[in-house]
């Protein structure tokens, strides 16, 4: 009997405040979609960091005859065979260095011609203008400064470059987008909480006569408040369900069937990551409105 009464009160409350309940569902769905998307974006960025940082190489470019005339770093002349051997020996002695690859000027020229085949500049570049280099793979790419400080400015070394700096600009951009999504999510959560509080307030005011009678016949405060809390929980849970549908839809249509085909270089996160986020979205969707309703009732429902 009590369960039937609570359920009937929930139905009455949802019907009376149908418009506001719909607004709560939509705002919760949008905010939780942003929450789930932010969590997945963070996982994607971390996965990309692990993948690309593991392939980062430090390039030590050596001076050639042209650099000796135009670059102050090579003012002491082009690199000699003894200097190249000494550099290689010191690189191989470093525990931080996993492997060293030598690229000759001819190999650099061939790679340049392949990469810049459509550029008119490629036709006027000659092999003697290209630089020899050592491509150094590190066991820990974050320790690039160790190699840079040890070899930058040495005789025969034109520059030391780290590919990681280019990648960090991309990751900083992705992290910025993620933070923006979190900020928008927080704003949407505030909007959802305000809607929930107003919905509970209106519902409690419209049923003040019924709640007063229930109090007179000895009903407990929790029993009186329970229909309002469950109304908010149901609305939030529906919002969470819609948020899960949005997240799954974006994963399937936007990522798997579009971005994964357009950008094959990126290893996008799989369904396991998405499925691990969905339960959290549902829990937050049900719990957040319930707590908001509980604290709102303490102020607006005097029982």
SSE topology sketch:
Elements: H1 2-16, H2 18-53, E1 57-62, H3 65-70, H4 81-93, E2 97-103, H5 105-115, E3 133-138, H6 144-151, E4 157-162, H7 164-206, H8 208-216, H9 221-262, H10 271-300
Antiparallel strand pairs: 1-3, 1-4, 2-3
Helix pairs in contact: 1-9, 2-7, 2-9, 2-10, 7-10, 9-10
Q: Care to describe what's here?
A:
The model has no long low-confidence stretch (mean pLDDT 80). Helix 1 crosses helix 9, helix 2 crosses helix 9 and helix 9 runs antiparallel to helix 10. A 4-stranded antiparallel β-sheet has the order 2-3-1-4. With 303 residues, it is of the alpha+beta class. Helix content is 70%, strand content 8%.
Radius of gyration: 32 Å
Major sheet: arrangement of strands: 2-3-1-4
Proportion of residues in extended strands: 5-15%
Mean pLDDT: 80
Put simply, the count of helices is: 10
> How many distinct beta strands?
4
Pick out its properties.
303 residues; single chain; 4-stranded antiparallel β-sheet; elongated
Short structural summary:
With 303 residues, the chain is an alpha+beta fold. It has helices spanning 2-16, 18-53, 65-70, 81-93, 105-115, 144-151, 164-206, 208-216, 221-262, 271-300; strands spanning 57-62, 97-103, 133-138, 157-162. It has a four-stranded antiparallel sheet.
């Amino acid at each position: 009997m009590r369960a039937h009464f609570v359920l009937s009160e929930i139905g009455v409350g949802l019907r009376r405040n149908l418009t506001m309940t719909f607004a709560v569902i939509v705002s919760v769905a949008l905010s939780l979609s942003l929450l789930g998307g932010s969590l997945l974006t963070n996982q994607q960025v971390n996965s990309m960091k692990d993948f690309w940082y593991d392939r980062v190489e430090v390039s030590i470019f050596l001076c050639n005859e042209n650099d000796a005339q135009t670059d102050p770093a090579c003012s002491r002349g082009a690199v000699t065979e003894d200097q190249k051997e000494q550099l290689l020996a010191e690189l191989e002695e470093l525990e931080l260095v996993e492997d060293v690859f030598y690229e000759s000027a001819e190999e650099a020229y061939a790679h340049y011609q392949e990469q810049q085949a459509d550029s008119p500049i490629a036709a006027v570049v000659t092999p003697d203008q290209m630089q020899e280099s050592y491509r150094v793979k590190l066991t820990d790419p974050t320790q690039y400064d160790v190699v840079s400080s040890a070899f930058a400015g040495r005789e025969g070394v034109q520059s030391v470059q780290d590919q990681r700096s280019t990648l960090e600009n991309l990751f900083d951009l992705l992290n910025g987008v993620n933070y923006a999504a979190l900020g928008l999510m927080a704003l949407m959560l505030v909007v959802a909480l305000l809607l929930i509080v107003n919905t509970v307030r209106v519902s409690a005011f419209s049923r003040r006569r019924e709640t007063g009678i229930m109090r007179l016949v000895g009903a407990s405060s929790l029993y009186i408040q329970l229909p309002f809390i469950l109304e908010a929980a149901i609305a939030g849970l529906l919002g969470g369900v819609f948020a899960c549908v949005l997240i799954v839809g974006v994963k399937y249509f936007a990522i798997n069937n579009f971005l994964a085909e357009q950008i094959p270089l990126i290893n996008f996160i799989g369904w396991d990551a998405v499925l691990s986020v969905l339960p959290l979205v549902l829990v937050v969707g049900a719990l957040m409105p319930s707590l908001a309703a509980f604290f709102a009732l303490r102020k607006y429902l005097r029982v």
